[in-house]
Every structure is written in structure tokens, then in C-alpha cells.
Amino acid sequence: FLLHWPLFDCWTRFYSQILCPACSAVRAGGKGCCGAGCCGNRCRMLRSVFSSAFGCLGALYCLSVSSAGLANGPLCDIGTGDWQYPFQNLETSYLSNQTLWEICKSPPNIVMWNVVLFSILLVSSVIELVFCALQVINGCIGVFCGDCRKKGRKDDDDL
User: Fold this and answer.
1) Rama region for 138: left / alpha / beta (φ>0; ψ in -120 to 50; rest)
2) 9-16 LR contacts (CB < 8 Å, sep 24+)
3) Mutual angle of helices 110-145 and 5-27, in 10-degree steps
4) CB under 8 Å to 7, separation ≥6 — which residues?
5) CA–CA separation, 54 vs 49, rounded Å?
6) Which residues, in sequence order, are CB contacts of 158 under 8 Å at separation 6+?
7) Strand, coil or helix: what is 138?
8) How far is CA 93 from CA 57, 89, 133, 145, in A?
9) Quick one: 120 exposed, middle or buried, by C-beta within 10 A (0-12, 13-18, 19+)?
């Protein structure tokens, strides 16, 4: 179980830190505990900025774990009963030379599994980082400039 702990930790942080900013971004414009009016909207947008910044930290963590997982390669049996990271100190990248993948004898197809899994995590963490950064920018604009509601309309109508 301890060998898979970084993977489990990355997945749990990834999903927990996506849901928090997403829920906060959805609730940022609605009625809530921050009150009504201009100050209430700015307070909700500030909460959205903090939650999205927290999401950026989670995305950076997942990005670093998945990058390290791709760079080091999988932990596998090289045929002698010795479990090690055979691709960790190679001069060439195992990602571009698939003939090196045959070094790992057990578990079967572990190199492909490692590459696919950490590539998916890498791409999803980059997407999360982009969306959270955009939400931080959007929230900062909302905090400093206010929202886009018309002057003649009450602040919390139709929410």
C-alpha cells in the first residue's frame, strides 16, 4: 500500500481541490453568508479568489507528482526478483525508446500503465491550473471593479 500512496494522495488532492474552487465559483454570485449588495458580492468574489488559489496549489502539487512519476518511471521487477526504478538514472528517456520497456518483467504492462496514468494526471492538472488561474483573475477583477450588474437593478434579484 505504501508504494501507491503518492498516487492515492495525488488523486484525492486533485479531486478535493477541484470541487472546492468549483463550488465556490458557482456560489460566488448568489446569496450567501457575505450579505447583500456591493460589499456582499465583493466578499463572495474574494472567497472565490481564495478557493481558486487553493485549487492552483492542488494543481501544482498534482503537476509535480505526475511529472516525477513520468520522469522516474515505474517501480517494477527487472527479472531477478529485485524491485527497483530501472529508468531513473538512464542517459536517454524511456518515454521515447519503447524497446527499454522490456526491462520490466513484472507486473505486465506496468510501463504503459505508468505512462498513461501520469500523462492523464499531467494534462488534467494543467487544465485545472489554467481554469483556477482564470478564476483568480476573474475574482480579482470582481473584487476591485465590482460585478457587471446594471445600476437600476437590485443586487440580488433573480438569484
Assistant:
1) alpha
2) 9/65, 10/61, 10/62, 10/65, 10/66, 10/121, 11/121, 13/58, 13/61, 13/62, 14/58, 14/59, 14/62, 14/121, 14/124, 14/125, 14/128, 16/58
3) 30
4) 69, 117
5) 9
6) none
7) helix
8) 28, 9, 31, 49
9) exposed
List, for residues 26-80, the tens digit of each pLDDT value: 665 555 555 555 555 677 778 888 888 888 998 999 999 999 999 999 999 988 8
Cell reading at 62: 498534482
* Cα torsion angle, 25, 30, 35, 41, sign: positive
pTM: predicted TM-score of the whole model, two decimal places: 0.70
Grid look-up 513484472 returns 106
